[in-house]
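Bug #77: duplicate submission created two jobs. Keeping one. Sequence:
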Amino acid sequence: MTSREKVEAVAIALFLEHGYAETGLATVIDACGLSKTTFFRYIASKSEIIWYAFDEHTHRLRRLLAEADVREPVMTVIRTCVVEALRASADEHGIWMKRFIILDNSAELRAEESSQWMSWADAVSGYVAGRLGVSERGLVPASVGGAVQAAFLAALRGWQTSSEPASELLRGLDADLTPLCDVLQGWLDRQ
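Kept job's structure:
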């Protein structure tokens, strides 16, 4: 674990125990045993502890989509890339899920949540738009991005109390996304 990961792990444990809004940055810094200067080398703000990994995950999804084989069906690529992006985000300590639980249960973080999830959906809709040669704000790309994002979010919410290992959850995500992606691929094929 890097020093940044250690700081994040301590902060996330505190957020889960005391609540995100109730845990001040000074408490996190003290619990980490770092000076403010050292702490801020790793983390710029309290919300970054949660959003940094989310942003990295979204960038990873965009990269995987950009590198995907365009000979594959659009929705096969999207399903595969969504699962693979999450596989790369998942860690053996479950910090990724703890971070999501904090995000999903914090009113303070919800103020930023919409723009973050919109960015995630835009990664998918941008890929669809590129493959179809249309605007990503068009009906079809935006609908696909929104549908896949909603299914992904629902799956994450369903996992909050699961004790299954990440590998099983990822297999489940792939299986859960398959019927949706099959339907959406049929719709794309008619465009």
